[in-house]
Structures are given as structure tokens and as C-alpha cells.
Description:
single chain; six-stranded mixed β-sheet; alpha/beta; about 25% strand; 9 helices; five-stranded mixed β-sheet
Amino acid sequence: MEVEWIAVDWGTSNLRAWAMDAAGRPRAEAGSAAGMGGLARDGFEPALLDLIGPWLAPGRRTQLLACGMVGARQGWIEAPYVTVPCAPVGPPVAAPATDPRIAVRILPGLRQDGAWDVMRGEETQIAGLVAGAPGFDGVACLPGTHTKWAHVSAGEVVSFASFMTGELFALLASASVLRHSVGSEGWSEADFAEAVEETLGRPERLAGRLFGIRAEGLLAGLAPERARARLSGLLIGAELAAARPYWLGREVVLVGAPALAAAYRAALALVGVAASEADAAAMTRAGLAAAHARLTAQRSPA
Length: 302
């Protein structure tokens, strides 16, 4: 197998790597649960080698380019944030690898001053989006634990906003009084749409409508799958109300896991926004490939 370089997406919970050929195509893929959140600083290199060892050739130093929380302050080495407006990915930082078969560099995240905000990992997905559509002028919405809305224009991230919607859903569904009402699976499109419209129009009612889920479960037998959809809809509706300056009148591309992206697409459709979708893993690889190509060109003699 031809391995020209290795692309790495290293988040808080998971590690993913792709063996890339000279044309920027993945030849093999591997993953593990060795996320940044469970590693001490001296554990990053062993975790990486456990995953990619079979791809490394003796006597050859393979270049690795990584993105994500591996570059956080608690990660392998901190890759300082780059301030927007700027290109999605900035200059990488070398990680202190000791194995002579690898040279590891980590891409930085983005920061926004004033309206304080940060992202780390999502900027690489935005870079992949821009690489595939260089003239894109619109908004990338990246649903997840901390959903990002990023205004992209002229190849740069102009501004962005983060929302803890995914984390709030997980906490309310598992660690609040709503855990007795909200199911772990199942869905109701009608309840989701009704809830989105309710908090989109009246976001100040969110806290009260959340408790209404519990009350309706007790008094009217609200089914767990309906409660799950309603909780999601209330939270996403409140997010859309706050993110209105991003999606109103702009092209929106959703970059995320298929099920979550579908929920956001349905919510946006209620306000007349026909959002398109892009695969998150593919955008991550494309962003890493674009960054690697730029670094290779910078190293090549004129």
C-alpha cells in the first residue's frame, strides 16, 4: 500500500487516521477510542503508533498532519488559535514525537475576540468545504456537541458563533428531571417541528416549555420518543432564534453526522432555508489534504 502521508483527526473522545496517497486520496482508515480527554501528555505518541504502526515503513519518516483537540492546551502540544477573519487553517505546530518514522504537525484552531469564541477541529472541515467550493460565500453550520455557525467569504472565516445545544440535550436527557420522560431512541417529526417553531418564535419561553415535557409525561402520558423529539426541537429552535443573523438570507451548508444534520435541515426548512449537506469526515480529510498540499508547496524549491 502506497502511504505518502497520514491525516489525523484527534478529538476529545476518538482518534481517526487515514493513510493518504500522493493525490490526497485515502488508501486505508483506522480509528480508536484513544481521545485527547483520556490521555496524559506522554500518552499521545504511543496511542498514535498503536493505530498507525502498520502504515509506517522502516527507514522512512512519514509526515503526519493532525487537527482537533490534540492541539488544545491539554493536548499533545498547544497549537495557538488564529484570530478571525482569516483562512480556515493556519500554520501548524510540530509535536514532540520521538519515533524517527514520524514527523507530526498539528493545525491550530480559530479564535474570535470581542464576541469571545473558539473552535478547534471544525475549522478543518470548513477548509475542506472551501477547497471543494473556492467561491463559496455563505454559512457553514457544523452541528455537534457545541454547534458552530461560521460565515465564510472570499476563502476566509469572517465570524462564527458557538451553541452548547448538543451538550444541553445530553445533560437534560440524562441528568435532569427530564431523564424520566425522554427516551433514548425513537422520533416524532410532528413534535419536533412544533417545538422548533415554538422556541424560534418565543425563545424566552424555553425554560418553561422544557418543564412542560415532564408535566405532559406525568399528566397526559407523553410517549418517550415524542418527548425526545420535543426536547431536541425546543433547543434547536432556540438556537436558530439566536443564530438568525447567520442563516437569514444566506446559503447554508450543514457539515455533521447524518442524523443530526437531518434534524437541523428540517428545522431550517421551517424558516424557508433549503440547506445542503456535506459529509463531516470527507470535509475533514479534504481540509487536511488542502493544508498538506499547501505545506508541501511551501517546502518545494521555486
